[in-house]
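Journal club prep — side note

Before the paper discussion, L.F. wants everyone to see what a predicted structure for a comparable chain looks like in token form. Sequence:
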Amino acid sequence: MTKIIANCIPLLYALQRLDEAAFHKAFRSDRTRAPFRKISSSADGPLYVICAVFCWIWLREPGSHFISLLCISFMVERPIYLILKNGLKRNRPAQTIPGFCSIIVPSDHFSFPSGHTSGAFIFATTLAMSLTNNGFAPGINPETLLIVGIFSWAVSVGLSRVMLGVHFPGDTLAGAALGISITVLIHYLVLI
């Protein structure tokens, strides 16, 4: 077991260097940061409740599936997210890169995985699965446009966390994977 762990350490260092290089390239950009603050804060949590109530009213039958899937997915994801974040204890860019200061102050100390990104992808995946689970036809229609829009927002949340300097790109990729995988598993294992 010790040999396996020892063999993984160079790979982990290589991944860290790759993540830092991608972070520096993204952060060096001259793009304005103001929109990223708004996008990031849209995934803070309260907006999920407002959107969930709206979707429940607007979607009628798929709305009950949406609410169930959203609640169960968050109830499963949050403990896993906290265990990963506090167990792995990956430092944020400001603690890792000498002289670097993030644009915003993060709500906690550790970086991996991105909880904002995970939550955004739970919301997007839940909406997509609720719409497609109830017989909506594929193709260009309002439901498809809504799904494309909500996933674009979720990707923007992950990007905003990097652009604000509170996450490395790998943190947001892991957050997206966590949110999507848990929602899909809950959908197929619990709700169907």
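L.F.'s comment for the group: Residues 61-88 form the longest helix (28 residues). Keep this in mind when we get to the figures.
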